[in-house]
Structure formats: structure tokens, C-alpha cells
Amino acid sequence: MHWSKQLIPTLREVPQEAEIPSHQLMLRAGLIRKLSAGLYTFLPLGFRSLKKVERIVREEMDRAGALEILMPALHPQEIWENTGRFDVLKDVMFKIKDRQERKLVLGPTHEEIVTDLVSHEINSYRQLPVNLYQIQTKFRDEIRPRFGLMRAKEFIMKDAYSFDADWDGAEKSYQAMYEAYKRIFKRCGLRTKIVEADTGAMGGSSSHEFMVLADAGEDGLVECGSCPYAANLERAESVLRSAVTFDGAEKMPEVVATPNRRTVQEVSNFFKSSPARLIKTLIYMADDKPVAVLVPGDREVNEIKLNRALSAKSLVLADNPTIARVTGAPVGFAGPVGLSLPIYADHKLKGYQGAITGANQADAHLVNVDLERDAKVTQFVDVTSAKGGDGCPRCGNGTLNEKRGIEVGHVFKLGTKYSEKLSALYKDAEGKEHPAIMGCYGIGVTRTLQAVIEQCFDTDGIIWPITIAPYSVEVLVINAQHAESAKVSVEIVAALKAAGIDVLYDDRDERPGVKFKDADLLGIPIRVNVGEKSLAKGVVEIKMRKTKELRTVPVAEAVNKILSTIRELNDEING
């Protein structure tokens, strides 16, 4: 393809709307353009790379035995109400009505739709297992779309759904997808970290996320420095502290006046103690009933963990009047001693002695609190987020390190949550009906494309892995008016195309410096410079975008050298 006949609107300046490198480079390299918040148009080069990601996904899903289908993006609202997920996801759904006033939603995901399909088409164990997948557009009304394709209102996703007759089969299906995902991201040139994750609104028994480690990642995770354990912060565990004893442990609780000291920092400064000595008491409404939640002063409540521990359908912080009613004190002075409501304490508080808590009266705190002696703890549970420096819950010896990541893939063991509610049943050999056991497997295709750039760039621009680069080779004629340079360039382009290589030919009548800067910005893996000076020596230049290595090659050997270099780059990724 001739550059002069392409649409490649490169930008010299960084657009103000772009906050992270990958978003900046996608705009500057002319891959995408913004229509409005969270909505982007793919321009030709971006679309070519997107299609290559999709091809890799399809090849690996087909290789794993999944069957491709295509489901509607527009769904009847009723089917979401049948599983109870409409109330859970209604705030992120785009909702419309047709001319008959029937309620519809644009699908943020497709568990309900595929389960409904299977409920009508599969009824015997002989038809199982089956894994159905699609590459489809999804829609989510994000509160704050940001970072380009990372958090958009409209995006492309690959979602697959396995249906099995028993848990052994479901585990095999899960592992098949797990391995397929490892191959997909490797082929895309991504380095991923697989972490344990929370199932969230999707439900199910367990899940894993495939994360791209990047400073710009919106998701937090921890990983052990001594073993393979890694988990996102919603799920991560950490080793329990040994019994913690502070000064005054042998004494009985004593009320101390703390006028206007409400926050952890204010109280810590007042007592000249570390925040860890404080026990924070928060009042939540779990299914409309008040409960007290205790965490160390240097930790925050992880509401996902708390919700899981309480098995609550709804969970919100209590309002100020409720807090005053159940504790007898204004906000900032609640404590566990004397409370008559259920108390859930983070397991890191087990053995706490000599602690400081609120006194359940205005402008006062208690010191010398032995939590297990002085308060009636209903249950010790894990309700705080792990953080760097904590001990590893798996090996017991390692220390957890905090990282940031971009979630590009997620695999779930769903169980029978959807098949029971939507009657996706099969009959066994004796004719008895059972709900199919499901798994769900998603890849953010558009997000994966941008994540590659977030991991593969330098100060000059993108550094594409050859497997998903818009073109594998760029042939750049330094002076388009020089007949011999143009002739050799066209011959190299023709020979590469005949060998099945996708080539971008920069035939523009531009200054060499402009063309070189654009080439670095676009990041095509191999660049062939054809110019008068090199041709006078009977050679052309081959420049590697990643290493910046510049090789001079005789003109007659150029095509073979380029082809062998392409094989080397592919082997580097796939080997």
C-alpha cells in the first residue's frame, strides 16, 4: 500500500485529551480518532492491527475446540430481569424502548443470551461439552470514560461460554481456555501476569485475570517475590499478623477525652501512636440491617471482600443518623466496646491488645482495649486489601509487592448460576434433568490492542510486535524524485507482496526527516531505507524498530534478508 494513497493523519503534538502513553500514541500515529467521550473511530492502520488481534483470537479459540457464533447486541430487558442481573448492572446499561414500548438494553455482556440459546438447542448429555464464542461489540455506560480504548462506552470483546455435564468436564474446559489465553497474549507480543480475581457481578466460584503490568493500569494487584502467587486487590489475601500488643495491654479500657479528633491521623497524632494501633469501627447497612466492621487504622475496608463475607445482597455505609442511633455517638467516635449489633472484625485484628478505639460518645476514645476481652466479636473475617510488605498467604515466606495492571482477559467458573435460572438443562443417561455447568471467558480485544502499545513504546513512538503490526515492513524511498530509488523501492515492495508480506510503501515527496519521524512514530517492525547514497554503494539500509539496529544489505539480497528477519521476529514471539 502506497502511503500517498492511505489515510495516516500523524500528529506532532500530544493531544490534550490523552493521559497515558498508549492513548497518546494511538492518536498521534493516526490509529484512532475520538467521536465523543468513550467512542472512537478506527482509522485504516488501527483497523488493520485490530483485525490481526481478532485473527489470533479466532485461531486459538478454534484450536481449543470452541465454536464461533454471533449473538445480537440488542437484548430484551426481560431476560436480564430473569437472572436478577438487571438490578445489578442497570446503571451501566444503555436502555431503550422500541416502537411497541418493549424495553431493550444494549448488551454489556452475553451470559444470559447464550444460556437462553443453549436452553433451546441442547437437551442431552450427548451434546455436551460445548464451547460457544463470539467477537462482538459491547456497550457500557461508563461514568468516566478515559484512557482511550481502555475504558470506553463501546468496545469489542471476545466472549466464550462453556457448557459441561459435570465438574470434571467443566474444569477441563476452564483449563483449555486458560491455556488458549496464554497462547493468545503471547502471540500478541504481550507479557501478562495471571492473577486470582473476584467473580463480581458475573458470579461463580473462582476466576483468574490476565493482567498486563503497566504503571498506567487502573487495577491494583500484589505478587509474591518468592512464589507464583498473585491476585488483584479485590481478591488478594495476606498472612495474618501474629498477636499485636501495644502499651497498656495489661490494663482495663479507659476513656480519654479527644475533642474534635475524628480521623485516624488526628487521633494517632493526639496519642502519639502509629495508625496501626487504632481500630477503626465503621457501620454498614447489610441488607438494610446495621453491622459494625472493624479494621486496623492503617487499612481500608475492601467492600468486595466484605460483601462476600456477609453474603449480602446490598451493602452500603450507614448514614449519619443511623450511626448516631446505633452507637450513641456522632461519626468518628464509634467503637466496638459495648455495641449490641453484629461485629465483624478483620482477621488482622485477632489478638489485638492495648488498642485505641472510639468510645461511642462524642469527643472521646478508649485506650487499653483488648479486642477479644472487651468486645463481642461475631466473627473474624478477611475484609481489608492486601498491600506491599504483607506476607504471602501461599508460601508463607515471601513478601507481597504491589503492582498496577491492565486487565485484558478474565476467565470464570460460573457453575449453574445462569443455567438454573434460564433452564439450560440436559438429560443424563437415565433421563434425569440437570443444569449445565458453565464457564465464561472474556478478552477485551480493543483493550488488548492498546495494552500492547502501553507495553511496547519508546520516546519516538510505538514498537509493534510483528504479529499485530499494521504492516510488517515499511519501504521508505528517501527521495521520491530520484528515479533509481523509486524503481528499486517498487521492486522490493512487489517482491515482498508476492511473498505474502504486508508492506507500507512511503512514496511521499516529503523531507527525509519528516518520513523518518513518521516511521518511528508508526513503529512498523522493519524499515527499508532506499536512497541515492546507499544505492551508489549497491546497498539498501534495513532498520529494526525495536533495537534501532541499522544493517546495510546488497540490493540483490534485500528481499531474502527481509524475509529471514521476519521469520526471526515471529520466532522470537512464538518460540
- The secondary-structure class comes to alpha+beta
Give the CATH superfamily of the largest domain.
Bira Bifunctional Protein, Domain 2
β-strand number: 31
Task: Give the percentage of residues in beta strands.
Answer: 25-35%
CATH architectural grouping of the largest domain: 2-Layer Sandwich
Beginning-to-end CA distance, first to last residue:
30 Å
Largest sheet: 9 strands, mixed
Quote the average pLDDT: 93
CATH class of the largest domain reads Alpha Beta
Question: How would you characterize the overall build of this protein?
Answer:
The structure is a single chain. The chain is of the alpha+beta class and 575 residues long. The chain has 3 domains: 16-189 and 413-453, 2-Layer Sandwich (BirA Bifunctional Protein, domain 2); 254-381, YbaK/aminoacyl-tRNA synthetase-associated domain (YbaK protein, Alpha-Beta Complex); 471-574, Anticodon-binding domain (Rossmann fold), CATH 3.40.50.800. 29% of the residues lie in helices and 29% in strands. It is built from 16 helices and 31 strands. The strands form 8 sheets. Strands 3, 7, 8, 9, 10, 11, 12, 21 and 24 form a 9-stranded mixed sheet that branches. It has a 5-stranded mixed sheet with strand order 16-14-15-17-20. β1 and β2 form a beta hairpin.
